[in-house]
Amino acid sequence: MPMIRAAPFDYDFPTGRLALIVIDMQRDFIEPGGFGESLGNDVSRLQAIVPALQDLMAACRAAGVPIIHTRECHRPDLSDCPPAKRDRGGPALRIGDTGPMGRILIAGEPGAEIISALAPEPGEVVIDKPGKGAFYATPFADTLTRLGVTHLLMTGVTTEVCVQTTMREANDRGFECLLVEDCTESYFPEFKAATLEMVRAQGGIVGWTAMSAQIFETLEKS
Ligand code: C5J
């Protein structure tokens, strides 16, 4: 079986049982005027991973590796948004408020859309999720089962919030997860670094990490 050179050790690359997971590459997190900026963050940091993620998505599409996208968003009536999530911290714009890209983190609004540079292609699954993790209150688990997937390449934003939560949820369900270092980003560089360390510590207690170059190398050979 092909392997990806990864940390803390090589990662199996079972063609046909692998999926690329792209977490929350939405305008609300990545562009000025959205949810991320309303929380006081510098959103330009997240834009830096877009070219590497574009290349990885193109390589996966060419190799027939399915891509599953997620979007963190809520119903327009906010019935799936707990007040604890909406009110905590008193942000300048709360979930459901109207900002420059429509209502913040509401399904169907411009800000909740995936950025155009990483737009899903027809036939790719897009999971709308009300939580930080992609398994909570979504068909994500059923989708992975339907596709026969056992190994997940994890990417997207933010590393220590929705990406890490989803990776931990997946790990608990028996998936083998690899976090792609140059295809994930945080508003806080030290949180990204800590997440990479904690994922691969203790013999890969949550999973693996590797740069996208290692994945391209293996995709080309497989
Ligand atoms: C956050 C996310 N950071 N997608 N969401 O609130 O990580």
Folded structure, characterized:
- The chain has 222 residues and is of the alpha/beta class.
- Helix content is 36%, strand content 20%.
- The chain contains nine helices and ten strands.
- The strands form three sheets. Strands 7-4-3-8-9-10 form a six-stranded parallel beta sheet, with helices on both faces. The protein has a two-stranded antiparallel sheet with strand order 1-2.
- α7 links the parallel β8 and β9 (176-185).
- α4 packs parallel to α9 (212-221).
- The model has no long low-confidence stretch (mean pLDDT 96).
- Dicarbonimidic diamide binds at residues 24, 29, 72, 132, 157-158, 161-162.
Essential attributes:
9 helices; 222 residues; two-stranded antiparallel sheet; alpha/beta; binds dicarbonimidic diamide
Task: Quickly describe the structure.
This protein is α/β, with parallel strands linked by helices. Helices cover 36% and strands 20% of the residues. It has a six-stranded parallel β-sheet, sandwiched between helices. Strands 1-2 form a two-stranded antiparallel ribbon.
